Amino acid sequence: MLVAALGAQAQDRTSDPLGPLAQCINRSEFQFRQQDRLPAHVTTRSVKLTTGEGQVSVADGYRLMLFHKGSLPFVNLKIERSAEGRFAADRDTIVAQMQQMSSNSKPPQLVPLETDTRQGVEVLGLNNPKITQSSGVISVYTLLQPASGTVATAYLLNQPADKREFATDAQYHALRDRFLAALLSCMADTAQ
Q1: 77 CB contacts (<8 Å, ≥6 apart)?
Q2: Which of 141, 152, 11, 19 is nearest to 85 (CA)?
Q3: Residue 57 pairs with which residues in a beta bridge?
């Protein structure tokens, strides 16, 4: 029933409310070499919760593979717009997912959920304590902007040690923080 109701709320894709955000990010020091807009028939995405599978509405969205200076991707970024009237419920589902991901982490890789609000955007983050403890995703950030109903989920990727743009945890943190600042600035500049 919920999926059918969300499907009925799919927006007409003749407008492109997330296009300016994608282009803003591409003008930062992080550019995409791959940009995929979600097809109009995709109106939800599933997330794993302790209570089972949850649904997040998706009225529109992009998948961007972002690169910094190297030949390997640094961020797998998903930007989405919640269906009309669904942002609050989507936020609750996403927060529950992030809390579950944090609670599923185990020592020595305990990953607490970090929360903050910057420029009208709620920021949820999960960071592996050391770059050497992750061979795939080092950090996951979800940025929630109620004013526009936008959700940005960034998977910051590790790279093979011999091809990495960062050699130390501190260098990774600096690059991660520059990416987050760029994404936050773009979300603030393009909020509709």
Answers
A1: 25, 32, 62, 63, 64, 65, 66, 152, 153, 154, 155, 183
A2: 11
A3: 44
Q: How far apart are CA 125 and CA 99, in angstroms?
A: 10
Q: Please state, in angstroms and rounded to a whole number, the distance separating the CA atoms of residues 50 and 116.
A: 24
Residue 168: both structure tokens together: 């130390």
Scan for tokens 């070499």, then name that residue: 33
Distances (CA, A) of 132 to 7, 62, 69, 160, 161: 42, 30, 21, 10, 9
Buried b (16+ CB within 10 A) or exposed e, 152-166: bbbbbbbbeeeebeb
C-alpha 50, offset from chain centre: 21
pTM: 0.90
pLDDT tens by residue, the chain, 192 residues: 344 444 444 445 678 999 999 999 999 999 999 899 999 999 999 999 988 999 999 999 999 999 998 889 999 999 999 999 999 999 999 999 999 999 887 766 668 899 999 999 999 999 988 888 767 899 999 999 999 999 999 999 998 888 889 999 999 999 999 999 999 999 999 886
